[in-house]
Design goal:
The structure holds 2 protein chains of 2 kinds. By secondary structure, chain A is mainly alpha-helical. Chain A has 13 helices and no strands. In chain A, helix 11 runs parallel beside helix 12. Chain A is elongated and about 75 Å long. Chain A starts with a helix and ends in a 5-residue tail after the last helix. By secondary structure, chain B is mainly alpha-helical. Chain B has 15 helices and no strands. Chain B is globular and about 85 Å long. Chain B starts with a helix and ends with a helix. Classes of the chains: A mainly alpha, B mainly alpha. Chains A and B meet through helix 5, helix 6, helix 11, helix 12 and helix 13 of A and helix 1, helix 6, helix 7, helix 12 and helix 13 of B.
């Protein structure tokens, strides 16, 4: 079963390409202090808005900071936001989905109506409204993206629980006197992890996209902390003179999100070939 | 049909109540009271004045009562007054901007349908041929594309480099002095980039969905029957298969509405379009809570309405839905 998974996964060239991108990003984030050629926040007013050159491969920003170095440190930020936000969403989604699917009845009805209502709000609106009230900071951004993005996971986990709770191993666990909590978290949830893993991978991509859009609008990660989105803000402000500020950070976002999406779809195909 | 419509409307009521509860809860997430922001800038505001302000916004009453008072006002579309210096009613501020946002979104929706459906159908009919492969590459890139970045690139290319299209606002400064035809053309030129970009986000999803749908329909028995009767491939695909594959698209379009409305914040801000999205962004920046909450509520109600329209049109198109 396990070797089957790896064979199917490695046969899928797109999935492998996605994993390479994701791994490369991990390496870049981990070794950012050593990889970045310059201090990402070193201001050099003599080198303002320099186009890409041998010294500054991707040019400099309006404060003379090295764009490549800022992008390398920005990779760290997007990774952090992607994982923490998705982690929060999974935590909420898995618990609510498990409870709804396991208990059914009124509990289920209430939780699922709550999901329906949350889905009525344009996600971006809800995020912005909460930002208006809390300060935009990297921690608040992670929290907000997580708290507004758990509904899909809830539906998925609930569906898995509904089919899994009728199975014999759950009955067996109940017969030996396992508590509801134990059955939910020790016996059923691990069996529902496959679909959660896939959704989580795609969720990281979504969270990175959202963070970059928020930072671009100036209500996400705040300068001087570098993020791909807030470098693009400088790109928009200097749109007629500094194309490099607009081009490269966006390309980084595109490739990263593409990487996570390919990885996620590859995982889905390898975990459950019937879904192809 | 009427009973179906009634049932759907009845189902909407609890949703609407839920929406108001969430809006109200978000509003009260604020540490301290929303009026602090108005008074903290003013050192001369006395404790008494702060109390008066709290009383004005009903903040001195217990939460359930506050909620009830707020909902009662909401029912007559009284969303309170803006915190901004103009102090205009929130509903006026939103209503004057709503038409632009709705127009942009409807245009984008039409564009999505006009492009994504032919792409999906062609990809399905020529499964695994070059067009299908190109489509799947496009779909993957479309899903991963930060559209605000694409907007920047297109602004650089068409606005600055080539100088073909304006990149800001919805009309030129001298539009008032243009003849009607010229003014209309001016408007169209301003709308090309925003509509194109706002549609881009939905294209990938719908073409992929349409392809999958079409592939599923083509495998059905009645398609084989149509082929066995000796109908031409054209008739089979475009008459028998397409009609049935198109039905569920109605629902998908309904589901894509919140994404479109949410995206309007980004595009209206980038292109300086005076719509509801831009107002929302400016109000978030200025912490104008009444406007933020008003738009949050209107956004959710628009989504609810969009879904209702989608469900009802589906029921009109497919009698099976009405019965079950």
């Amino acid at each position: 079963m396990r070797s089957d998974f790896w064979r199917r996964f490695l046969e899928n060239r797109m999935a492998v390409a996605g994993s390479v991108v994701v791994l490369a990003l991990f390496v870049v984030s981990l070794f950012a202090p050593w990889l970045a050629p310059y201090d990402p926040s070193a201001i050099d007013l003599e080198k303002v808005l320099m186009p890409p050159s041998g010294d500054h491969w991707l040019g400099t920003d309006p404060l003379g900071r090295d764009v490549l170095s800022r992008m390398i440190w920005g990779a760290r930020i997007s990774l952090k936001v992607g994982f923490v936000a998705t982690g929060i969403a999974i935590l909420i989604g898995a618990v609510l989905g498990a409870v709804a699917g396991y208990y059914g009845g009124w509990t289920d009805a209430v939780i699922m109506r709550f999901v329906d209502i949350m889905l009525c709000f344009p996600a971006f609106f809800l995020i912005l409204a909460v930002i208006a009230i809390l300060e935009p900071s990297i921690w608040n951004i992670m929290l907000i993206i997580g708290v507004t993005g758990w509904m899909g996971i809830t539906r998925l986990v609930r569906a898995d629980f509904i089919s899994l709770k009728e199975r014999d191993f759950v009955l067996a666990a109940r017969v030996i006197g396992a508590s509801d909590l134990r059955i939910i978290f020790v016996h059923i949830l691990p069996n529902a992890m496959a679909s959660v893993l896939v959704t989580a991978t795609l969720g990281v991509a979504g969270a990175i996209l959202t963070e970059s859009a928020l930072s671009f609008l100036g209500i996400g990660v705040q300068p001087p902390t570098p993020s791909w989105g807030n470098i693009l803000t400088a790109g928009k402000d200097n749109i007629d003179i500094a194309w490099w500020l607009s081009l490269y950070p966006g390309l980084a976002i595109l490739v990263t999100v593409l990487g996570y999406n390919l990885l996620g779809e590859g995982l889905r195909d390898a975990l459950d070939p019937r879904l192809r | 049909m009427l009973s179906y419509l009634g049932k759907r409307l009845l189902f909407m009521a609890p949703m609407l109540i839920g929406i108001t509860i969430i809006c109200f809860a978000v509003m009260h997430l604020a540490p301290g009271s929303p009026t602090d922001l108005q008074t903290q800038m003013n050192p001369r505001a006395s404790a008494e004045a702060k109390e008066r302000l709290r009383a004005l916004y009903d903040l001195d009453k217990p939460l359930p009562q506050q909620y009830w008072l707020w909902v009662k006002k909401l029912a007559v579309l009284d969303l309170g007054r803006s915190f901004s210096p103009d102090r205009r009613p929130v509903s006026d501020k939103i209503l004057e901007r709503l038409p632009i946002t709705v127009t942009l979104n409807v245009l984008s929706l039409l564009l999505i349908v006009a492009i994504a459906i032919p792409i999906g159908v062609l990809a399905a009919v020529h499964q695994d041929a070059w067009f299908d492969r190109a489509t799947s590459v496009f779909v993957f890139i479309g899903f991963a594309m930060p559209t605000f970045w694409l907007a920047l690139l297109l602004m650089i290319l068409f606005g600055i480099h080539l100088g073909w299209l304006p990149i800001s606002g919805i009309r030129s400064l001298n539009a008032e002095y243009m003849r009607p035809a010229a003014a209309f053309w001016d408007l169209v030129r301003h709308l090309i980039l925003p509509v194109l970009l706002s549609a881009f986000g939905g294209l990938a999803g719908l073409s992929r969905y349409m392809r999958a749908n079409m592939l599923e329909v083509i495998r059905q028995d009645y398609i084989m029957t149509a082929r066995a009767k000796g109908l031409s491939e054209r008739t089979v695909i475009y008459r028998h298969a397409l009609r049935n594959a198109l039905l569920p698209v109605i629902t998908i379009l309904g589901l894509s509405i919140p994404g479109l409305i949410g995206g309007s914040v980004i595009f209206e801000t980038i292109f300086a379009i005076p719509g509801m999205g831009q107002l929302f962004y400016m109000s978030v920046m200025a912490r104008d809570y009444p406007v933020v909450m008003g738009i949050l509520f209107i956004g959710a109600v628009l989504t609810l309405l969009g879904n209702l329209i989608a469900d009802v049109s589906y029921a009109l198109a497919d009698p099976r839905i009405r019965v079950s």
